[in-house]
Amino acid sequence: FFPVGPETVLIKYIHKLTSFIYPYVRIQIPEYTGQGMKRSEAFTAIEAYLSDSCSQRANKLKADLGKDSSKLILSMDDHEEVTDEFGGAKFWWSSSSRSTRQPQVLSWYPAPDEKRSYKLVFHKRKRQLVLDSYLSHVLKEGREVAVRNRRRKLYCNNPGGSGYGYRSGVWSHVLFEHPSTFDTLAMDPGKKLEIKKDLDAFRKGKDYYAKIGKAWKRGYLLYGPPGTGKSSMIGAMANFLDYDVYDLELTTVKNNVELRKLFIETTGKSIIVIEDIDCSLDLTGKRKQKGKKEEGASEEKKNLPPGQEEKDESSKVTLSGLLNFIDGIWSACGGERLIVFTTNHIEKLDPALIRRGRMDKHIEMSYCGFEAFKVLARNYLDVDSHPLFDTIRDLMEEVKITPADVAEKLMRKSGDEDAGSCLENLIQAMNKVREEEASKQAHASTEEIVKGEEEKSGAEEEEASKQAVRSGEEMDGEEKRGSRADGVL
Ligand SMILES: Nc1ncnc2c1ncn2[C@@H]1O[C@H](COP(=O)(O)OP(=O)(O)OP(=O)(O)O)[C@@H](O)[C@H]1O
Ligand SMILES: [Mg+2]
Fold it and tell me: Using only C-alpha atoms, what is the Rg of the chain?
C-alpha cells in the first residue's frame, strides 16, 4: 500500500473519466525526430500515403511537381483532416504545423522554423489492428507511392563552397536529369548486356544478399582513357535502375569522420560516385609507403605548435577511412547502394581498394570499336548501314579513337549536313590519327637507328684505339708514347 496524495487520485480518475468519454487513441508523427536533422522516414512515407488517398477527399491541398515535371502531386495542406478506412475500421488523420521561431536564441544547429507533424486518431478498440497491420500497411503503401512520384536527385557534398558551420558535410541536391541511357551508350553489345544483367540481379537481390550474409551493395570500377564514356555510363546506370546519384568529391571531405557522416546521410536506392579516384587523394599505394611517411611526418610535427599535430593527423581522408566507408559496418545501413569509382589509371590504385568484394566488377571502357561506332551512327545520324562503313571498320581496327571523338565528328554541325559528309569527317580524322601514329613510329625508329649507329661507331672507334694501342706496344721509346696518345685521342 502506497500512500498517495489526493491530487494523484484525482488525476487517475480524470484519466479514467476522459478515456470513458473520449475513447480514442492518438499517435503523433513529427517530421524531425531526436536531435538529428534527419527527416523522419515515417513522416515521409505517411505524407506520400496521404497524398495518394486524400486527393479525393481533403479540401485544402498542397501541390508540387512530380516525376516527369508535367503532373502535379497533391498532398495534404497543414491543419487539414482526412479519414481513411482499413479492415472495417475508421481512421482520422490530421496535419499540423507549429512555428518554433525563437529569434533570441542563437544556436549552432538552428532548428527548422516550423514543426510539422501528422496525427492519427482511432478508437481504442482498434488498437490491435493498428499495431498489427494498419501502420505497416500505411508505411508500405507510402513508400511505394513515394518511389512512384519521386524525382530523382543528384546530390553533391560541396554546398556552395562554404566549408564551415552546420552546412558543411551535408549533401545538397539538384534534380537529376542525365540524358545518357544504355541505348545511347556506345560499347560492345555483349558487354553492355552483361552489365545490364548484373544491375538487374543486384536490384532484385535483396533476399539473396540477406541469405549469403552480405550488405546489399555492389562496387563498380570503371577504368579507361578520358572520353571513353565512364561518366556517361554512370548516368546510364542511374537511369536504368531509377536510382539517385551521390557525387562524392573526396578532396573537400575534411576527414574520415566527415566521410562517415556523409555516408550515413545517403539514402537507399542510390549510386555513390567517386570520380577520378587516383587524383582525388593520395590513396595510391599509401599502405606500402606508410613507414616512410610516418618518419617524415614526425619530423614535420616537431615544428608545429602544440595541439596542431593531432588536428593534422585527423584532418585527412585516408585509405583505411575510405575502405571503412565502402565495406565497414556502416555500409550496411539503409541498403541497396551501388558504389562506383572511375579512374584513368587503374595501375596506380592500391590493390586493397579494388580487390573483389570491394569493387566487385571491373569494367574497362576502351577505345571505339566498330560495334560501338554503329550505336553512335544510329543515334547521331539515324543510319544502320552506309557504303563508308567498311572503310571505317578497317580503320577502327588500326586506329585508337575514343567514342567522344567519334561522337564529335558524327554530330551534325548544321541542319543540311548529311550522314555521308559526317562519316567522311570521321574517316579523315581517323586517317590523320593514323598518319600521326605512323610518323611518330617512324620518328621513334629513326631515333633507334641513329642511336644504334652511334653505339656502333663508338665501338668501332674503341676498337681502332685498342688496335692502335696494341700496335704501339710493339713500338719502342718516344714513338710508342706518341702513338698511344694519338690512339686515345
Ligand atoms: N561510350 C560512349 N557512348 C556514347 N557517348 C560517349 C561515349 N563515350 C564518350 N561519349 C561522349 O563523349 C562525352 C564525354 O564522355 P564521358 O564524360 O562519359 O567520358 P569519361 O570517360 O567520363 O572521360 P573522363 O575520364 O575524362 O572523365 C560524352 O558527353 C558523350 O557524348
Ligand atoms: Mg568522366
Answer: 35
